[in-house]
Amino acid sequence: MAVENASGRALRVGIAGLGTVGVGVVRLLAENRDILLQHCPWPIEVTAVSARDRRKNRDVDLSKFDWCDDPVALADHPKVDVVVEVIGGSGGAAKALIERAIAKGKHVVTANKALLAEHGTALARSAEQAGVALAYEAAVAGGIPIIKSMREGLAANRIEHVYGILNGTCNYILTQMRETGREFADVLAEAQQLGYAEADPSFDVDGIDAAHKLSILTAVAFGCEVDFAGIKISGIRNVSAMDIEYASELGYRIKLLGLSRLIDQGAERRIEQRVHACMVPQNALIAKVDGVYNAVVTQGNFVGQNVAIGRGAGQGPTASAVVSDLMDIARGRILPAFSAPADTLKKIPAAPEGSHVGPFYIRTMVVDRPGVIAEVAAIMRDENVSLESMIQRARSPGDRVPVVFTTHETSQAQVSRVVQKLGKVSAVVEPPHVMSIEQLS
Amino acid sequence: MAVENASGRALRVGIAGLGTVGVGVVRLLAENRDILLQHCPWPIEVTAVSARDRRKNRDVDLSKFDWCDDPVALADHPKVDVVVEVIGGSGGAAKALIERAIAKGKHVVTANKALLAEHGTALARSAEQAGVALAYEAAVAGGIPIIKSMREGLAANRIEHVYGILNGTCNYILTQMRETGREFADVLAEAQQLGYAEADPSFDVDGIDAAHKLSILTAVAFGCEVDFAGIKISGIRNVSAMDIEYASELGYRIKLLGLSRLIDQGAERRIEQRVHACMVPQNALIAKVDGVYNAVVTQGNFVGQNVAIGRGAGQGPTASAVVSDLMDIARGRILPAFSAPADTLKKIPAAPEGSHVGPFYIRTMVVDRPGVIAEVAAIMRDENVSLESMIQRARSPGDRVPVVFTTHETSQAQVSRVVQKLGKVSAVVEPPHVMSIEQLS
């Protein structure tokens, strides 16, 4: 499994993409050179790079590297043993480069969660057949070595579930909303100014980025094929300052979580994957992970609960993850991408829509008039939804007032029917806002 | 690096010690057999075992394993490729077995922190020379894959410091003391009844077990030789219910931490290793790690802060760690024990006694009479110790009352001089209790 190269004296790296991450990798390899030399059997050297604009000032010395205008050319470059793909995107140049590199028998290190979410299983299979690494520690949870932990450190366990805060932008926005009482749009605009959110924020705030990462964690956790399409995804646009206040009052925090669970009923196995804003008990460890930090919680049948927390994005953490993959390759440590060989990855069907069962938070806005609460409560009763608590305040006849319910264990399908019926009640003046309550510890 | 064995069809394991951990390994290998088969190139099979009492009922089927009365015989057993040493102790049979196994070219997996703390560097060197693994994930922080995280996942970083809750017994006792207001001796007795503390608790409550683990983390973090003797160690026997109350009042929690830091002043490099009870801000993540959980926090120059939390002991977590090491060996993944080759491990001197600088908590018990506070305050002033706060309460002339000070940045040496002088003040009726305040985030 050792790396072969012409000189035999270095692991030679070609980097495709010189944005924040690519430049971070160049910087790390230079600044921590002594550390790497102590730990690796041979030096890790950048030999070639590719990016869109050759003249852009990137504050690092690129003069010693060969320049390829076409990133795919890195796969054919004679002085490249490993391709680092940090271009991004689920197709285009990134995909072409990785496929070409594998075809040429070169190792691949990537930070590209979108690509793995869409094409992970197929790429893992090709890499295995070619005997090369497809490594992607940087794709999930930034600097947290969670892929290594799950694929190796916790690999002896039957994983029961995995969940986490997988998107730093959303976590930053929700933290700011809670700390300042401001609304989503306002905090998003500020996050964009500060560079914590993209100009087009939808990949982050609509939960897609978190879902990409969750699909990868799921495959590693359960030894199954990547199933991004099987994830139920929603984001944080609908979380209001009012919900955050109610969450605090009820003893919860609101987090965007990705949650994945194996439902094993004998012959019937299903995977439930969800990405959405939800309430978690304010004393749960994950409730305390704020700002741009990510966290991943795994539950294994022998190890119990493990929690890993760290920076989810940014130049330093991502470069740390990319170079740890390069070190694994230099050390001859190559495993199947999703831990189990691609041919053994199971196809486990997604749990059917609406099957999730748990407590829920339902906030309605009603015109306060006699009989409204009775009408709403009757709908809950008719759908067999058992209430755990109700909050109504600031009543003054004719006002629009929020009425908040929390339920005992209820299926998502029941809650959906309740919401549909509530929409037909004339006193209910806007669509109810629903969030699951996750009783995490 | 692949494992060689006669049959070529299995990784054959000999387990020395059939206490909680050894039995856990047997159970895990049986119960999670399907998981292991999916992830490993060949089965991991126990072939031989050794323990003191052959007839003891251990609730697992041992009938298919060869029995060795002498654990060291496992090293010579023809059907053993890997020895799992879970006897414990820094010498005796454990040491003899490991040395013999290495000499016979067999891999070693151990949970023995005492042995590695005392003899780690030498054993690492022999294992490397013999080309075998010396793996010990279970020795530090139980089920948390912290050795793998640091040795591989965060290996690209210059580690600045590492600290953690490394002893679950102490953390359980301190958590109980806080939650119930009871005194140490009382809670310890209960923990012993519940099996959370040993009959002879001194390894745990005096900080020695945590120091064993810290010495190993330090070697991995800084690429240096294991230096257990260089650790300043104290435990939790002196923590009183009163200190815990004051900690809460001041916004802190009391934790037994192991802390290790590289002090790099150009040519002058020192390592500061400390194990002691200390105060941490109650909003720091580590303050929220309660009960039998362990936590390790690392700070790397690129990755920033990483936190790993999990169960620090017990059958399941320890077996999970041992088997993850076995899987690494089965997968042909063998690294130098402390990540860097033994010959490159640096000898970095310990920071001199008393050199630690930070804020401190000092609690004195005084007889309340006019002028006492002035006298005590004058001692602080004379030693240039700058006070951050003072708490004195429940005064009634002639009473014994606690007087609590917290200081600004002060050296341990200054604080020691203050304590010495306080001991000579007649109104100070018992030795002052001192704890460092660690401003962690």
TrEMBL record, chains A, B:
InterPro entries: ACT-like_dom_sf (IPR045865), ACT_dom (IPR002912), Asp/hSer_DH_NAD-bd (IPR005106), HDH (IPR016204), HDH_cat (IPR001342), HDH_CS (IPR019811), NAD(P)-bd_dom_sf (IPR036291). It holds the Pfam family ACT. Residues 361-436 form the ACT domain. GO terms for molecular function: homoserine dehydrogenase activity. Keywords: Amino-acid biosynthesis, Methionine biosynthesis, NADP, Oxidoreductase, Threonine biosynthesis. Gene3D superfamilies: 3.30.70.260, Dihydrodipicolinate Reductase, domain 2, NAD(P)-binding Rossmann-like Domain. The keyword NADP applies. The keyword Cytoplasm does not apply. Its EC number is 1.1.1.3. It comes from the Bacteria. Pathway: Amino-acid biosynthesis; L-threonine biosynthesis; L-threonine from L-aspartate: step 3/5; Amino-acid biosynthesis; L-methionine biosynthesis via de novo pathway; L-homoserine from L-aspartate: step 3/3. NCBIfam families: PRK06349.1. Belongs to the homoserine dehydrogenase family. PANTHER family: HOMOSERINE DEHYDROGENASE. This is Homoserine dehydrogenase. It comes from Dongia sedimenti. The lineage of its organism: Bacteria, Pseudomonadati, Pseudomonadota, Alphaproteobacteria, Rhodospirillales.
